[in-house]
Amino acid sequence: xxxxxxxxxxxxxxxxxxxxxxxxxxxxxxxxxxxxxxxxxxxxxxxxxxxxxxxxxxxxxxxxxxxxxxxxxxxxxxxxxxxxxxxxxxxxxxxxxxxxxxxxxxxxxxxxxxxxxxxxxxxxxxxxxx
Length: 130
Prior knowledge:
four-stranded mixed beta sheet, Ribosomal subunit interface protein, alpha+beta, Double Stranded RNA Binding Domain, 130 residues, RHF/RaiA, 4 strands
């Protein structure tokens, strides 16, 4: 899984922020393995550097193999809190989205067809079928 970090000019994009984002996103999405090919993380300061509550905004977009991308966002007072909140939301969304794909349908079948049952016939029945 590739993780891309984008920030606006009001967010300090340094190595510690990159490491934090990589760590949080990787840990939150590790169980989805190859189903998630890329996560884009966008961080911005809604108040352009002025102090304020809930002004750090994080958007995460996960690219899924063979499916449409999914997007979540989270606002918080601090950048790291916004990243953590968005990662938790993304994890729940992927649990829901990908979990539904693996869950049995109403008829009790999964999304993949079952192998045909092997029917044993006696030699006399086999001769009658020919």
